[in-house]
Amino acid sequence: MTVITGLTRGGLQWTPAFVVELRQSNCIGCGRCFKVCPRNVFELIDRDDLEDLDEASDDGFSDDTSMVMSLKDPYDCVGCQACAQVCPKKCLTHEPQPVAA
């Protein structure tokens, strides 16, 4: 598997790491990743709308934490990792990736 690489303005090789996972069980719905993302990667959803209802109903969050971040379009990620830098709960995982077919 050949991963995407590029060059910085200074001519150095750079390998972006793209978002591959968002651990919603850790997310507090603060929206920092959404605000810093230059693309359309994230969206804020109701915690009740999670696909895994068993996990959502017993996640230990109070009713005032009713929102959680979700990956809206992970293929729009440019690999800057700004979201991981601002996430207070370290919910995001990034990895180098090949071009999607």
Shape: elongated
Q: State the CATH architecture.
A: 2-Layer Sandwich
The oligomeric state is single chain
- Order of SSEs: EEEHEHEHE
Number of strands: 6
Largest sheet, in brief, is: 2 strands, antiparallel
Cα-to-Cα separation, first versus last residue:
12 Å
Q: How would you portray this structure in words?
A:
This protein has 101 residues and is an alpha+beta fold. It has a single domain, classed as Alpha-Beta Plaits, CATH 3.30.70.20. The chain has a two-stranded antiparallel ribbon with strand order 1-2. A hairpin with a 5-residue loop joins strand 1 and strand 2. The longest helix is centred in the middle third of the chain and has 5 residues. The two termini are 12 Å apart. About 5% of the residues have low confidence.
Summarize the structure.
The chain has 101 residues and is an alpha+beta fold.
